[in-house]
Amino acid sequence: MQSLVEQNPVLTDADRAALDAQACRGLLWVLAAQGAMGLAAAAIAGIIAGAAAGLSALAGAGAYFIPNALFALRLLINVLKSGRTSPVTFFLGEMVKLLMTALLLWLLSRVAQGWLVWPAVLLGLILTLKGYLVLLLFRKLS
After folding, report:
1. Which residue from 5, 6, 80, 132 puts its CA 20 to 30 A from 116's CA?
2. Would you tell me how many other CB atoms lie within 10 Å of the CB of residue 11?
3. What would the pLDDT profile of 41-57 be if each residue is shown by its tens digit?
4. Is 74 exposed, middle or buried (0-12, 13-18, 19+ CB in 10 A)?
């Protein structure tokens, strides 16, 4: 039977700082990849289907990227401020992020209904959601 110390290793302040720095870098990499994928979706849609489709894809990407970036900023501030995050804070933030995304998509459907191209919006949204796959492809995430 393992002792309690072997099951729960004690981290030094330097270990915690290194883990916090690694988490912050990973979070920023994911945001960069999601932004790049959103821009790629807009470019693809714009080239294939025209300017309205490109703007629609960009709007769809932004509907997810903006709330996600705000949530990531909140997590970064929390990590840098105290070094500890609560699971409750994370799940509430995730819920607010998803509600903000739904609200932005609803507003987009109301404000831009004259020129909005829904397949392009979905392309931008999905590629931005899956932006982390680019990092996995280049092995930037473990």
Report:
1. 132
2. 11
3. 999 999 999 999 999 99
4. middle
**In residues, how long is the chain?**
142
Helix (H, G, I), strand (E, B) or coil at 8: coil
For the chain, what is the domain count?
1
**pLDDT tens digit sequence for 56-68:** 999 999 999 999 9
What is the CB-side half-sphere exposure of residue 4 using CA atoms within 13 A?
A: 0
Residue 101 is predicted with a pLDDT of 97
pLDDT digits (tens, 9 = 90+) for 10-38: 777 777 777 778 878 888 999 999 999 99
47 belongs to a structural domain: yes
Answer whether residue 82 is part of any domain. yes
- 37 CB-side CA count, 13 A: 24
- Which stretch of DSSP H or E encloses residue 130? none
**Do the domain assignments include residue 28?**
yes
Q: Cα separation of 29 and 31, whole Å?
A: 5
Task: Tell me whether residue 36 is in a domain.
Answer: yes
Residue 123's identity, in one-letter code, is L
Range of the domain at 63: 13-137
